[in-house]
Amino acid sequence: MKLYSPGDTGKAVCEDCGDIVSMTFQYRDVPFSDGSGLAHNILVGVCDSCDSVIAIPPQSTPAIKAARKVAAKSIEAKVPSLYIEALDLASYRISPSLPREFKNKLVMYFVHQCATDEKMAKAVSRKLEAKKQTFEKSIAPHVLKRFSMKVSPDMAADFDKAMDMTNLNKTSLIKSVVLQINDDIIRPNRPKKMEELKHFAAASAG
Amino acid sequence: MGFSEAKKAVINALRNGNFMHATRESIEIKNELATGVVTPDEVAKIIKGCRGFNHSTSPLHGAPHILVHIFKKNEWYIKFYFIDETTMFISVHK
């Protein structure tokens, strides 16, 4: 087993450069692909041409595992499958090329708005009672699916604050946010927030 | 490189630590070998149980001249390619 040091070199594929490139090992802060946080100061292979992080040696795995434990708080709820499908559809409408995990980021985008905007929190808190019956009427009996996401400690704090501001429990907040997403993204012919959400999707994918 | 060669090479790589994780600016959470959810021994054991029908190949996105090997077994999805003597893992997840 080879132990790499900063300054060592190697080869890997750089998707941005579209070829096998030379790389140099350096310490970097690298985010998790689901947006749940960062692994700080881990040794990675960096493309010599474009400076992108393109490889991770196995010696960085213990540090990644430890960072993942700290970074990831789990938020889970069982909701009728239609809610999950609505999130998938909203993501697809923002951009068909988005990965399925984007729906978690979309939920947290709205949760953050509830945590920071009293008006939004009020609107979302009323949404469930007002819209649930109409939204769920077509799905009897309900097939329940697990909604699960790993979030950073800051995002978990946002979620707690949003529950507090909307006076909803975890499952009801998730359902209400989906109903808000349905009203804002799925139902309108020309969703007002679309440009903003496309920018958000592009930024969170990079 | 065909199934038998790829299987032998990846098991050797996992046993002697001659592998790395391919990434693109972030730590791919679907690479559970990189995040430490599974160990190299556990991945080697899954691949050891694979037969030819568990294996497929495809060109690498972004560098199509490189062949990606995919092993699917008992819900596990393991995806990697070789550069010289090094195995580069892309995905290891259920």
Task: Please outline what is shown here.
Chain A has 206 residues and is an alpha+beta fold.
Topology:
The complex is a heterodimer of chains A (206) and B (94).
Chain A: E1 9-14, E2 19-31, E3 38-47, E4 53-56, H1 61-71, E5 73-80, H2 81-94, H3 102-116, H4 118-136, E6 144-151, H5 153-166, H6 170-186, H7 194-205
Helix pairs in contact in A: 2-3, 2-6, 3-4, 3-5, 4-6
Chain B: H1 3-16, E1 19-22, H2 40-48, E2 55-60, E3 63-73, E4 76-83, E5 86-93
Parallel strand pairs in B: 1-5
Antiparallel strand pairs in B: 2-3, 3-4, 4-5
Account of the protein in words:
- The complex is a heterodimer of chains A (206) and B (94).
- Chain A folds into two domains: 9-71, Ubiquitin-like (UB roll); 73-205, no CATH class.
- Helix content of chain A is 50%, strand content 24%.
- Chain A is built from seven helices and six strands; from the N terminus they run ββββαβαααβααα.
- Chain A has helices at 61-71, 81-94, 102-116, 118-136, 153-166, 170-186, 194-205, and strands at 9-14, 19-31, 38-47, 53-56, 73-80, 144-151.
- In chain A, the strands form two sheets. Chain A has a four-stranded antiparallel β-sheet with strand order 1-2-3-4.
- Chain A starts with 8 loop residues before the first strand and ends with a helix.
- The longest helix of chain B has 14 residues, at 3-16.
- In chain B, helix 1 (3-16) runs antiparallel to helix 2.
- Chain B is globular, with a radius of gyration of 12 Å.
- With 94 residues, chain B is α+β, with helices and mostly antiparallel strands.
- Chain B has a five-stranded mixed β-sheet with strand order 1-5-4-3-2, with helices on one face.
- Chain B has a single domain (3-93), classed as YaeB-like fold (2-Layer Sandwich).
- Chain B is built from two helices and five strands; from the N terminus they run H-E-H-E-E-E-E.
- Chain B has helices spanning 3-16, 40-48; strands at residues 19-22, 55-60, 63-73, 76-83, 86-93.
- Classes of the chains: A alpha+beta (206), B alpha+beta (94).
- The A-B interface holds A 1-2, 10-13, 15-16, 18-20, 30-34, 36, 39, 44-45, 52-58, 61-62, 64-65, 68, 150, 206 and B 16-30, 33-37, 40, 60-63, 66, 81, 83-84, 86, 88.
- Strand 4 of chain A pairs antiparallel with strand 1 (19-22) of chain B, so a sheet runs across the interface.
